[in-house]
Each structure stands twice: as C-alpha cells, then as structure tokens.
Here is the input.
Amino acid sequence: MAVSPSPRASALTAATSDAELVARSAGGEHAAFEMLMRRYNARLFRVARSILQDDTQAEDALQDAYLNAYRQIADFRGASQVSTWLTRIVINQALMSLRKRKRDRVLVSFEDRRTPDDRETDMADTTTESPSEAALRAEARQLLERRIDELPLTFRTVFVMREVQEMTVEETAACLDIPEATVRTRLFRARALLRASLARDMDMATSGAFGFAGERCDRIVSNVLTRLK
Here is the structure.
C-alpha cells in the first residue's frame, strides 16, 4: 500500500523547483527532502534495480543513497541537475552493494571500453481490460523484465535509463560518466540482444501454440465414436 505524503510535504507542490527543495532540505526541512525523494523515486529505483537485479537490494541501496545525499546536500552547488546528482549517488551505492554481494572485489566500471566492433510520465490505461488480459499482460511484463535482467550490466543499465525511464542521451551519459556515443552504442546493442532473446521465446512458444494432444484429443475422438454408434 502506497504511503501518502506527510502534511508538510503535501503543502509543497509539483511546481516547487528542485533548487528550492534542495535549499530547504539543506536547512533541515525533512518535508522538502521527502518531496524530492517522491519526485525521483521511480527513476532512482529503476536505476538501482538495473544494476542489482533484485527489488529488495535495490530498495536498500536506494535508501542508503538517499541518506548519503541528505548528508551531502548542503554541499550541492548546482554544477549538474539535481536528478543527475542523485542518480550518480544511487549508481555508486548500487555498485558498492554489488561488489559487496559478489565478495570478489571485482570493480564493475562504466568506463568507455569500446572494442573494434563496438563502434524515456506514466500514462493511465484508459481501456477496459479483462482479468485474463491483465494476467497475460503481467506475464508478458515479467518475461520482459527477466530478459532485461539477463543483459550485461553496462547494456542493461543504459537500456533501463533510456528506454524504461526515458532519460535523454545527454543525462544518461552524464550520470554514467561515459561519452554520448557510447550510450547510443550500448543502447543499440541492448536492443539487439533483447530482440534476439525475445525472438527465441517466441519461437519456443509458437511451437506449442493451440495445443491439441491430451484431453482435447481424447474428447474429440470419444465424441465422434459415440456419434458413430
């Protein structure tokens, strides 16, 4: 169940600028920081989730990142957008959690390491949807999420930031500290890998479509034999 904003946070409006929220947060106003969190929660969770591939761990990393951001917010000077600043903190926290989880101290980097061949407002669904259609859509979404999780980390994160969260190429590059050309290349590769894996799923599903063997086969044969008698 979603938690409603506190009364003081509700007093702030969607028109309240990020700069004002930062200034008021730096002054110790928790309601302002609450509004800032609610404004970017979806984006930041998805970014953390794209790295950690686990909802619970992404939530934990996001909470830790928010705490780090709050401690540093008085030092924010506006050299970048607030959203970019927060995203970088979340990425760093998620990567730290990932290294800790793997326990092998392998540094996962988003640096540009190109090889010769390696040259995003939610809208309400206004249509009427039956329970079966809703279940089918949920299954399709779960399948897509699993396939996205299977993408290599660098491709997966760019895909989520660009396609799921609809961040611009410029902001994605700034958050990951990589060239814009690399963002485009990784998104292209991610799309290709995703299409290939989904195509395999489709091929496997197609071979078993409109299944006939079993009870249906027995029922038809039995009914025909009964009528023949």
Remarks:
- Residues 180-207 form the longest helix (28 residues).
